[in-house]
């Protein structure tokens, strides 16, 4: 398994950061992740624990499909999800902590477990995976602070 966590400081309140990455995940995800081709909600209503969705991502010039479910949802604190695409398993957690009235800490943690023969590639992908997580965190910060 490949894991990486990036921590950034965002000059927005914890409620604003959570609204952007949690509550409005389906509206905003493509704003901070350019590899999202399509993202849609499969369950009705707002994003909550158990919400399911489908994402198409461009990875290495090819579109990959992922079905995911929100596995952790704590208002203004955390959203976590697990996804499956082919033989790969992926999890993401966004944890927000207030640092002041208009400043927050955001942890972006991703884990990837590849299956089949692709599992042999995991250790070669660790550096690029870490860069991707860092890029996602940086992009969230830049988008929120515009």
Explain what the structure shows.
By secondary structure, this protein is of the alpha+beta class. It has one domain (2-144): Alpha-D-Glucose-1,6-Bisphosphate, Chain A, domain 4. The chain contains 3 helices and 7 strands, in the order βααββββββα. The mean pLDDT is 91.
By CATH reckoning, the class would read Alpha Beta
As a percent range, the share of strand residues is over 45%
Quick one: how many beta strands? 7
Main sheet: strand order: 1-7-6-5-4-3-2
Helical element count? 3
* Mean pLDDT figure: 91
What would CATH call the homologous superfamily?
Answer: START domain
Short structural summary:
With 146 residues, the chain is of the alpha+beta class. 28% of the residues lie in helices and 47% in strands.
What labels describe this entry?
146 residues; alpha+beta; Alpha-D-Glucose-1,6-Bisphosphate, Chain A, domain 4; seven-stranded antiparallel sheet; 3 helices
Task: Write the SSE topology.
Blueprint: E1 2-10, H1 14-23, H2 25-32, E2 36-41, E3 52-59, E4 62-74, E5 78-85, E6 88-100, E7 103-113, H3 122-144
